[in-house]
From TrEMBL:
Subunit structure: Homotetramer.
Ranges for domain Dihydrodipicolinate reductase N-terminal: 5-109
GO BP of this protein: diaminopimelate biosynthetic process; lysine biosynthetic process via diaminopimelate
The protein's name in its UniProt record: 4-hydroxy-tetrahydrodipicolinate reductase
Gene3D superfamilies membership: Dihydrodipicolinate Reductase, domain 2 (3.30.360.10), NAD(P)-binding Rossmann-like Domain (3.40.50.720)
Length: 252
């Protein structure tokens, strides 16, 4: 039998972290060696002999946590939102000193969401118009969501690559924010509503037809298969991978 993956989870006392603790504990090929909460020393990770780290903390501490792991040769799977381009650039510089280490930062670990985003990027090359609507619970601190930003970026890149012109929009008068936030030229609308968990729609339209791609997450359990997949494959993908789609064979 192969040696189990020794996992330390940061943010283990949050809802996502608690779900990850249960998922890793139940995985036959993994061993949960440390579960850290706010105020715990990062040295507990290495003291426990972890080889992989899952970061499910807050944006203010995530970069330091992941840097700590990389500098000690530990692979990392990161579900904390808010990683911008300068942060990713700094992390890539650290990874350059540790080329054997793999880090996955994923805006969303739900496999259905990752697939829906990939399908949307492909479909967007065939339609005149595209907009993104993301819907979450009112306790979410960022808007738009990281998933929506990633979706818009991939859509925009696909449309540029295919030579698709900008979507038609004759709006001249509007209230501030009425057309959403523009992410790489793609309108993104954020809804915050009690009772929701995590949901996203991509609306695509051309003359005479429309296509809607929607994904719904109803609980934190939807993210666990993606986190486990990341842990199993991180060592095989050295360097920084942004988006779980990098670990999936999508065929396009």
């Amino acid at each position: 039998m192969s040696t189990p993956i020794k996992v330390a989870i940061l943010g283990a006392r949050g809802r996502m972290g608690a779900a990850a603790v249960d998922a890793v504990s139940a995985a036959s090929d993994m061993e949960l060696v440390a579960a850290l909460g706010r105020g715990d020393q990062l040295s507990k990770i290495t003291d426990a002999g972890a080889t992989h780290v899952v970061d499910l903390t807050v944006p203010e501490s995530s970069e330091a946590n992941v840097t700590f792991a990389v500098e000690r040769g530990l692979h990392a799977v990161v579900g904390t939102t808010g990683w911008d381009e300068p942060q990713r650039a700094r992390l890539e510089a650290v990874l350059g000193q540790h080329p054997e280490v793999g880090v996955l930062i994923a805006p969303n670990f739900a496999l259905g969401s990752v697939l829906a985003t990939s399908f949307a990027a492909k479909a967007a090359t065939y339609f005149d118009s595209v907009e993104v609507i993301e819907l979450h619970h009112p306790n979410k601190v960022d808007a738009p969501s990281g998933t929506a930003i990633r979706t818009a970026e991939l859509i925009a890149a696909a449309r540029r690559g295919a030579g698709v012109p900008a979507a038609p929009d004759a709006t001249e008068k509007l209230l501030d924010g009425a057309r959403g936030a523009l992410v790489d030229g793609v309108p993104v609308h954020a809804v915050r509503l009690r009772g929701l968990t995590a949901h996203q729609e991509v609306l695509l339209g051309s003359e005479g037809e429309a296509l809607t791609l929607r994904h719904d997450s109803f609980g934190h359990s939807s993210f666990m298969p993606g986190i486990l997949l990341g842990l199993r494959q991180a060592a095989s993908h050295p360097g920084l991978s942004y988006g779980l789609d990098r670990y999936l064979d999508l065929g396009f």
